[in-house]
Amino acid sequence: MFVGLDLGTSGLRALLIDGAGLPLGSAQRAYAPVHPHPGWSEQDPADWVAAVDAALVELAAAHPQAMAQVRGIGVSGHMHGATLLDDTGAVLRPCILWNDTRSAVEAAELDGTDGVRALSGNIVFPGFTAPKLLWVARHEPEVFARVATVLLPAAYMNFHLTGARFADMSDSAGTAWLDVGARDWSARLLEVSGMSADQMPRLVEGCEAGGTLRPDLAGRWGMSGEVIVVGGAGDNAASACGVGAMREGTGFVSLGTSGVVLAGRDGYAPLPESAVHTFCHAVPGQWYQMGVILAATDSLNWLSRVTGASPAELSQEVGDTLDGPGDLQFLPYLSGERTPHNDSDIRGGFLNIDVGTERRDMTRAVMEGVAFALRDCAEALKASGARLDHMLAIGGGAQSRYWVELLATVLGVPLALPEKGDFGAALGAARLAMLGAGAGSVDEVMAPPPIRETIAPNAALTAGYDAAYTSWRQIYPAVKGLT
């Protein structure tokens, strides 16, 4: 048996699977980030510790025999977060999260430093870890002086589980400290942000054992025998493992809180000027690339808050039948944007509202704006040489058939919908634990899920959406100077 832990921004999910990779049970616990100042987003790692304990105690009570046979644990975590430890392993301050934008100035400085993009393979975004530490050095020098180790959220969970300080390649690639091509910490990248190699965790592959579960935790959670803890993965790499998006031509579109277009890569081919993320995959010898937008279903959630209708009600008003683009246009830049603009200051908006605009029109515009922003990501991926041949649609927004058909039409690729089941980051993390325990090869363990339905682009509407996308792309440069 194996356990996958998905450490998300709003909660933790624990998934128990058997040796064939089939889910046996799951448990969830919620927590929330705090926003003490505009643009800040933080979380207390103690919340993660409490959540994993409660979830695994619940699984132990519900599945005692299976939990006694657990042989491996994998952790998926939200990326880029800066968890700072002193030399005793104590947390020095709340973790600064991926969606925290306070270090925009520091990110721009690092991004403009000679050699940084070439070594890291990426633009240095404000959400990355390196600029956060430069911000701490400048604004909280007393904290910075005590930093012995910087751990990403998943690596901190590994530390809690094992007492060892290790991190996987896929997560570490989002720090701006890793030489992503060489899969190792870069002395140059560390130096320019005021850090040193001895403040970094030991690097392991995502499917490689980094330590063993502490005996006290094993006993509390009903696990007997040695339980390995593998490197794990950043959340998107883990999701790719969960749906088998490992190699060239495979990938997914995720309609979650943020939006992602991800493509597996057989080699290292960065294109940082496009704001595409080029990261190590969670298994040796593989990489992946993704374009990221910061507000996908979060745009619909925002509209829900301001209209008083639930996201489900809004989606129902749009219906299931795609009928071409509307006149109303929406920019989903509610928290700035990553791909392709790398712009933390830009903000969202509607264009062409008139006296006859109804709530349904606004919902359709939000869905179209998100789809167009994801096409921006897809175009950037194609420019780097990535192939988008076999794409899945995943995430909460994929429950809307309208939105999935809209995406397929805007992107110009068929989108496959998995059968209902566990195919997310928690499964990917558990699969990495399976590999670490020798339960099979990458191709055997990271199999794609059964497909419920494949939704093709609507050929009759493709030209209309292409024209609408071309028009939509002109809005960003027009409003950039006004925000």
Task: Give an overview in words.
There is one protein chain. It contains 19 helices and 24 strands. The chain is globular and about 65 Å long. With 483 residues, the protein is an alpha/beta fold. The strands form 7 sheets. Strands 1, 2, 3, 5, 13, 14 and 15 form a 7-stranded mixed sheet that branches. The longest helix has 25 residues, at 359-383. It starts with a strand and ends with a helix. The chain folds into 2 domains: 2-231, ATPase, nucleotide binding domain (Nucleotidyltransferase, domain 5), CATH 3.30.420.40; 244-418 and 450-483, Nucleotidyltransferase, domain 5, CATH 3.30.420.40. The record marks 6 as: Important for activity. It holds the Pfam family FGGY_N. Residues 252-435 form the Carbohydrate kinase FGGY C-terminal domain. This is Xylulose kinase.
- Share of residues in strands: 15-25%
- Terminal CA distance reads 53 Å
State the oligomer. Answer: single chain
Taking all Cα atoms into account, the compactness measure Rg is 22 Å
Number of helices: 19
CATH superfamily membership of the largest domain: ATPase, nucleotide binding domain
- The tally of structural domains comes to 2
Total strands: 24
Mean pLDDT: 94
